[in-house]
């Protein structure tokens, strides 16, 4: 009995080792085909046109997502530059207004009155122009939050999906390789094909789930961006229109106040060229 139990134990150990070796071999083969798929994608080698065509809707969503990602980053840079230039322009406008005011204090003519009126309009315009900065700052904050949260979350799902897609396509390559050597009369080859087929089904199920998640998130991302920009740009647009209305009103007032004023007459003196002077002297 003891000898019989020993044979049973050794047999179970041998079978376990065989299963373990089989499992290790399957994992190695899975990694091999996954790595091959990664190399195919990295080198730009042509893939199966039917497999690529089946992901056309997903690739269109990804193209839109990358566009949203890129334009949001560019928009943040543009807003920063715009705010900086508005500040510089307001400073220069205010400096010009102060300069005209100083000159008007020393000029009691009609021109002095014009410079004084213009200086007030420029200083007021410079102050009102700075009112554009708060809505732009708010827009910058919302776009930055959108980029850090919504885009980052979608990007994480996209990375999971791409990993699942690589595993799925690697499994397809594996199944294609096995099917080319498949002999339906050979049990081992048929069993191997079934195992690979099960692997393909599992990776496809995971990929399809993540693919659906990505498509839904990208659609929501586009809608969220539209809502965010509509709300933020509406405030900026209202502020901008108010600024231009007030500035235009002030400048129109100056034009009406000095309508009919005779402008200065300038006389241009023509300096003779050197060649003409030499001819006259000769």
TrEMBL record:
Gene Ontology terms describing biological process: regulation of transport
GO CC annotations, alphabetized: Golgi apparatus
Pfam families the record matches: Arfaptin (PF06456)
Listed SUPFAM superfamilies: BAR/IMD domain-like (SSF103657)
Gene Ontology MF terms in the entry: protein domain specific binding
Domain annotation AH: ranges: 53-256
PANTHER family: ISLET CELL AUTOANTIGEN 1, ISLET CELL AUTOANTIGEN 1-LIKE PROTEIN
Identification of the protein by name: Islet cell autoantigen 1-like
Source species: Cyclopterus lumpus
